[in-house]
Write a sequence for this structure.
C-alpha cells in the first residue's frame, strides 16, 4: 500500500532536492526555555539597596535635618533685648536724687506687655524706654520711671499732647536750672522743644481728672499722656494708655 502524500505547509517551503545530495531530516523545533541568568546579575541587590545609593540617601537626610535646624534658629522669636544700665550725672548734693537710665539697645520693648523686670528698676529714678502700640494703630515711644515713693512707677508717652519732641527724664538739676529756668529738687521730665518741665512727683489737672506730671515751667497745656503700669510676676508691665 502506498504511503499517503505528505501534507504541505504553505508557510514553510520544502527544501529543494538536489541529485546526488542526500536529504537532511527535518530539524525538530527548538523549544525556547528560560534564559540562564547572567552570573554578574545573579544575586545582585536592587539599585536602591546599593551602598552608593544608601550613602547618598544618608547624606541627603543629614543636609535636610541641618537645613530644618538652621531655619528654626532663624525663624524662632528672639528673646527681649537685655537692658543696658547707663549711669546719669548727679546734679545735686543728695545722692537720693541721682538717676539711672535703663535704656534698651538697639530695640525697645514693645507694649502692651512687659518692658522691664523689677530688679532692673530697683533703684529710684531708674527709667526704661519702650514703644507702645496704641488702640489707634499708631506706635508711640514711652517711658516708665521708678519713683522714690508710692505708687512706685510712672508710665507716660514720650510725646506730650500737641508736642513734637520726645520727653526725657533730666536728672541734672543744674541743667534744669540753666536750660529751663526752674530750680528743681529732684529729677524732672522735660520737653526740649517747648522748654516745658513736668514734675513726676506732683499731680496736675487734665480736664476734670488729676494725673501725674504737673506742668511746673513752660507753656505745656497738661501733664503727659499716662500709661498704666502694673507689676506682674516680677515684671514691670505697661498695660494701657490714655
Amino acid at each position: 500500500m502506498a504511503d499517503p502524500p505528505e501534507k504541505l505547509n504553505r508557510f514553510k517551503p520544502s527544501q529543494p532536492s538536489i541529485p546526488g545530495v542526500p536529504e537532511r531530516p527535518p530539524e525538530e523545533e527548538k523549544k525556547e526555555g528560560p534564559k540562564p541568568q547572567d552570573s554578574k546579575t545573579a544575586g545582585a541587590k536592587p539599585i536602591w539597596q546599593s551602598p552608593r545609593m544608601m550613602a547618598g540617601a544618608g547624606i541627603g537626610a543629614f543636609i535636610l535635618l541641618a537645613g530644618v535646624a538652621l531655619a528654626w534658629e532663624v525663624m524662632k522669636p528672639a528673646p527681649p533685648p537685655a537692658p543696658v544700665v547707663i549711669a546719669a550725672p548727679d546734679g545735686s548734693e543728695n545722692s537720693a536724687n541721682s538717676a539711672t537710665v535703663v535704656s534698651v539697645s538697639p530695640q525697645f520693648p514693645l507694649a502692651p506687655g512687659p518692658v522691664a523686670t523689677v530688679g532692673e528698676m530697683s533703684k529710684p529714678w531708674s527709667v526704661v524706654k519702650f514703644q507702645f502700640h496704641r488702640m489707634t494703630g499708631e506706635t508711640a515711644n514711652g517711658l516708665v520711671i521708678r519713683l522714690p515713693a508710692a505708687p512706685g512707677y510712672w508710665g507716660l508717652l514720650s510725646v506730650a499732647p500737641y508736642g513734637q519732641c520726645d520727653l526725657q527724664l533730666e536728672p541734672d538739676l543744674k541743667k534744669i536750672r540753666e536750660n529751663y529756668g526752674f530750680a528743681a529738687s529732684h529729677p524732672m521730665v522735660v520737653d526740649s522743644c517747648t522748654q516745658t518741665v513736668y514734675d513726676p512727683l506732683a499731680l496736675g489737672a487734665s480736664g476734670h481728672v488729676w494725673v501725674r506730671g504737673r506742668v511746673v515751667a513752660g507753656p505745656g497745656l497738661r501733664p503727659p499722656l499716662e500709661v498704666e503700669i502694673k507689676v506682674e510676676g516680677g515684671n514691670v508691665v505697661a498695660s494701657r494708655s490714655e
